[in-house]
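[Target chain]
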Amino acid sequence: MVDLVNLRTFVTAATSGSFSKAAGRLNVSPAMVGRRILALEADYGVKLIERTTRSQRLTETGQAFLAKALKILEEVEQLDDIAHPQAEDLVGHIRISGSTTLGVKLLTPALARFTNAHPAVSVEMTLLDRNVDLVAEGFDLAFRIGNLKPSSLIARRIGTYDFACCASPDYLRRAGTPGHPDELGRHRCVISLNLSPRDHWSFWDAGGREVSAAVKGNFGVDNGEAMRAAALEGVGLAYAPRVLVEGDLASGRLVEVLTGWKKLALPIHAVYPSRQFVPRRLAGVIEWVARELRELQ
């Protein structure tokens, strides 16, 4: 009979690309990963992974074994859901990826409430301002901002990520308040390295006509909180996610400008690997976050 712990360890090592990465994901030592895979190879009398000091690769048998192992583990998850049919009885582990600002401001509160409501589900969230490879890096789910490129992944739009243009009162006293996007070229701006393009900000008038304003500045950053901190220090105008600065706008620490113009509004998607069966815990967490975003917006 197959040892599911050893089988999961093999799949994790194969998809992550190394024993050390697999160990981090499984919260065990690399040596334990090696012992489990050796035991699996001994059970079946085959070599699954060839390793050197610097790399590893699946043998031909290992490649076929991996494809079948993924199907077996998926079917085991189906058995778990059959055994726990009640909607409130979600169980299991979910690895989630999201961008930093979205994760801190929106996902963390939502997922904290989800785990409170479903204590048998454990959530592990990694916040990075890049798109992870869900399969290769072992993630079950990612929340992504912006339009998605065509892929085999399954995506569901669950919300909208709105932007605001703002600056500190001190900066506006010194530099003046722009009345039109074309005036931004005469201002210092905090450049977001996560926007593409970095040097143009989009605005739309009441008739829907877009104005792409060229911007410049001597401070660029790839992190939302750092951009907010720079704006609060009076470095210049910031084109920032509204959720990041809404507290500062409400308190007056930052002042919104160009309020008669619409700003960027990007889609938020829940993205997960294509599969015939979606575990109930995964469907449950997606629906939970989608509902919370709807309530906020």
Remarks:
- The chain has nine helices and 13 strands.
- The longest strand covers residues 154-167.
- The two ends are 51 Å apart (CA to CA).
